[in-house]
């Protein structure tokens, strides 16, 4: 078995309580919940109306359409 090295060069985070490591950590320490009513689409056909949505995030700012396909 060969040994391989791993180098961590940064840390990022997207979560229902924050879109940065700092904001997420602060929200967790404050006991905030990221669970809320789903307001992005009609949920009447589903058993639940709640989810942990990532807010204020546009993936197209990070990943191009061509790359994500």
UniProtKB/TrEMBL annotation:
Spell out the SUPFAM superfamilies in the cross-references: Thiolase-like
Q: Name one GO biological process term.
A: fatty acid biosynthetic process
Q: Which InterPro entries match?
A: Beta-ketoacyl_synthase (IPR000794), Ketoacyl_synth_N (IPR014030), Thiolase-like (IPR016039)
| Enzyme class label | transferase
Example of a GO cellular component annotation carried by this entry? cytosol
- Beta-ketoacyl synthase-like N-terminal domain sequence ranges: 4-56
Name the pathway. Lipid metabolism
Pfam entry (one): ketoacyl-synt
Entries under Gene3D superfamilies matching the protein? 3.40.47.10
Lineage, top-rank taxon, reads Bacteria
Q: Which UniProt keywords apply?
A: Acyltransferase, Transferase
Q: EC number(s) per UniProt?
A: 2.3.1.179
**UniProt keyword annotation of Acyltransferase present:** yes
Citing just one GO molecular function, the answer is: 3-oxoacyl-[acyl-carrier-protein] synthase activity
- Protein name from the UniProt record: 3-oxoacyl-[acyl-carrier-protein] synthase 2
Record the organism: Mixta intestinalis
